[in-house]
Amino acid sequence: MTVTPELTARSSRAADIVTAARRILEDEGVDALTMRRLAADVGIQAPSLYKHFPTKRAVEAALIEQGMLELGKALHAAVDSRGGGVRRLLEAYRQAALTRPALYRLATAGPLPRQELPPGLEEWAGQPFYLATGDPWRAQALFSLAHGMVILELDDRFPDRSDLGRTWKAGAAAFNR
Amino acid sequence: MTVTPELTARSSRAADIVTAARRILEDEGVDALTMRRLAADVGIQAPSLYKHFPTKRAVEAALIEQGMLELGKALHAAVDSRGGGVRRLLEAYRQAALTRPALYRLATAGPLPRQELPPGLEEWAGQPFYLATGDPWRAQALFSLAHGMVILELDDRFPDRSDLGRTWKAGAAAFNR
DNA sequence: TAGAATAGCGAACAGCGTTAGCCAGGAGGA
DNA sequence: TCCTCCTGGCTAACGCTGTTCGCTATTCTA
What we know:
The first copy, chain A, is built from 8 helices and no strands. Chain A has 177 residues and is mainly α.
């Protein structure tokens, strides 16, 4: 049993930057998150951001860390509240992702900057899938299903947006032994 | 039973551009596909591309069309060659995606420019999932599983890259009634 | 043969991430 | 008290991106 990871400690200025970045990301989407815009929200000039973060990617890594931590907490809560429950786990996954779509996409789409993330965070966030299936390969497959459904929903790839609840139910049913 | 869609007809110059774009995309990845680079490969200047395509997105839409058509063909072939076969379908999906990773990602990640795509193409490409499951919701869930596994594999999100075959088997097993 | 459409071109614009060089203020030590 | 060094700002600028503008040469049509 791994212990809940903690957020990386940062100087107050750096913390301000991450907070502002998150607000921009969630309120206006990933395209709005530019270094100049971020700097303006903090009240400085863009080049000054580089006194606190080496690259834009490093700022994003801080956001990814937040996203994975929060998603992981939601999943652990769903599974801890009395074992198994594939259905429960999927519901928690979907809800956590859809309430912060831009953050979810940033944290799960594209390659991970693993070096800039706290070690163990990724594994800890994925653990609930193992707890719900009891098998590492079924766990990975279930995670794939969850991510696939969420990302396709976020990207509006399903023909009828109306009945996605039934799609999720069908997915959960497939993984109920 | 829908009929196989055909590629949108284009002027020879436009076809040259799409061909060059595809070569750049597959050989050097999505970041290498810039309008200046594309123009250079065709032997013209970047602004001249806009005599043939209104935006870069339109060039990408032409590539997406190719990607969906080829993926669809592979899936239909896997299902037609004697019914059902969730396992067969997933294997065909994985292989088609991994042999053209950049094209697959372009065609399936992010929102679709549906207006610039031939009507019916998307539905036709997804049909094999219905043929393999016999149920629209199970079909969508199975598609989600396939896409999730592929995109996570492409993005190197799984801890152990070694045994992904077992993950795919576990996924197929879950959907074998 | 005149006119229009086509498809090239170079110059330029705004926005992006990022680098370089400069400078004010504060902290620590002699 | 003075000197030095570090921190965190600043402006200017670079190279890149997609894209627009205005011009021109060729080709097709009436």
